[in-house]
Amino acid sequence: MARQNEGNPRTSDKTIGRLSLYRRLLNVLQGEGHRHVFSHQLAGIAGCTAAQVRRDLMAVGYSGSPIHGYEVVRLIESIREFLDAPGGQGVALVGVGNLGKAILAYFTGRRPNLRIVAAFDNDAHKVNRVIHGCHCHAMADLPQVVKKLGIRLAIITVPANAAQEVAEGLSRVGVRGLLNFAPVRLRVPPNVYVEDIDMTMSLEKVAYFARLAGAEKEGKP
Amino acid sequence: MARQNEGNPRTSDKTIGRLSLYRRLLNVLQGEGHRHVFSHQLAGIAGCTAAQVRRDLMAVGYSGSPIHGYEVVRLIESIREFLDAPGGQGVALVGVGNLGKAILAYFTGRRPNLRIVAAFDNDAHKVNRVIHGCHCHAMADLPQVVKKLGIRLAIITVPANAAQEVAEGLSRVGVRGLLNFAPVRLRVPPNVYVEDIDMTMSLEKVAYFARLAGAEKEGKP
DNA sequence: TACTGTTTGTGAAAACATTCACAGCGTGAG
DNA sequence: CTCACGCTGTGAATGTTTTCACAAACAGTA
Ligand SMILES: NC(=O)c1ccc[n+]([C@@H]2O[C@H](COP(=O)([O-])OP(=O)(O)OC[C@H]3O[C@@H](n4cnc5c(N)ncnc54)[C@H](O)[C@@H]3O)[C@@H](O)[C@H]2O)c1
Ligand SMILES: NC(=O)c1ccc[n+]([C@@H]2O[C@H](COP(=O)([O-])OP(=O)(O)OC[C@H]3O[C@@H](n4cnc5c(N)ncnc54)[C@H](O)[C@@H]3O)[C@@H](O)[C@H]2O)c1
What we know:
2 copies of one chain form a homodimer. The first copy, chain A, folds into 2 domains: about 5-80, Arc Repressor Mutant, subunit A (Orthogonal Bundle), CATH 1.10.10.10; about 90-200, Rossmann fold.
């Protein structure tokens, strides 16, 4: 089936994000009973242009038909093949505080491909308890648990001043991708990918552009 | 002082985000007693290039000295003038669930310029209670509370199927900026700015690029 | 004074991302 | 059958963001 193009110009960050979005939208469409979808329909619900959708889909190597558009099931499958690791990947969460707990609650029993399989904290009150269906380990056990479960991805929700240290510990035991919520720029080896979610920054962006939209002209840039 | 350039080519999204980041880093530097900073130093801790920093700073209209670099205090002040609304802005949070509570806990008593001044939920158990220092109102009171407090920004942390309705309600009563955590593309009037934080998408991005970094070469693109 | 070393601000180039626009194709109408 | 239609996939054009590279400024040094 869908052959992911090989010696290609590295698929961009933005495209990967949108593929993830398309997949979610396609799942909704599938649930509503749609068998086929056209690029302009997907674009409409994704909030981008039809050309953008088609360009992004080039990366996954599944071609639609000019007559029926894309077959929903097959497109979902092709995106899955392109994005997901075969067999799924376990994720660790470090820092079971307010945010960490919310994330555990949210991801528990959700996407079967990416599931949080272990939590870690240095607070004795949390260690060895099951929180939202996930066992919380002591930090000292991190190396062995990560190795045992073959974990290569982690979510960091510890306070800012602990994040660098945690990131280093994770990198050292073979974790290759970090989703970081701490408002700190992590320094990691070049073979570790870091994605930051910085709520304060996002909120300030909203404040700035909302002010522009109110005071000057209008619209989202 | 620092004159924000006026008839300028609309400052980009990305630049605004980085200015917010620079400001936070500068506050740390100031706390450590630094008086001056060079673009390459700021770049080092921000994780970008010196040229990028200088280019971004052009937007705020504060010039550094080739000898001492940028004066930390004055640069913070210039960024503040450029980004922030004078007098600060109140923010509403709608949906006091797991994530909403974590966010309330985090932002309470934090940045004085952007503070959460009201929370809303439709769950009778939460209405009229004070949660992490913030009063939770009924949804029915949203219009009057928003008007009374002059709220123009909101954070949406309701379930996906309620998000569109909530966004419309907020737009209708004059809110101009939304920070949306629900995994849904909101349709709002063109004078409302929406910023999405989509954790699932971010995590899938991490998974994809971590896999590349592991399997192929290395490094964060 | 003249020279060195360092940094800023910014035009110009390069890299990257999005959109345009159209050939090609299969379908269904006539 | 022939034609017109509407869509895909993609080369080329356009738009945006980042990086390069250098003139200008000036403290320190001798
Ligand atoms: N809560 C939010 O909405 C929010 C918003 C933006 C950013 N953040 C960031 O997310 C992070 C977590 O926020 P939070 O509100 O959940 O904080 P929190 O204090 O509620 O939770 C932090 C958790 O990390 C644990 N921890 C502390 N040091 C540790 C270490 N060295 N190793 C392992 N665990 C450790 C603590 O025991 C605690 O359980 C912070 O960096 C914060 O800046 C949170
Ligand atoms: N928790 C997470 O880590 C996480 C991660 C990614 C995305 N999200 C998204 O964030 C949103 C909130 O997640 P959560 O885990 O806090 O969910 P939650 O169920 O814990 O909280 C939702 C809250 O919204 C309230 N609510 C429901 N319908 C409402 C309405 N019409 N008007 C006002 N309030 C209403 C509920 O009473 C509840 O308090 C969801 O859209 C979820 O998809 C959450």
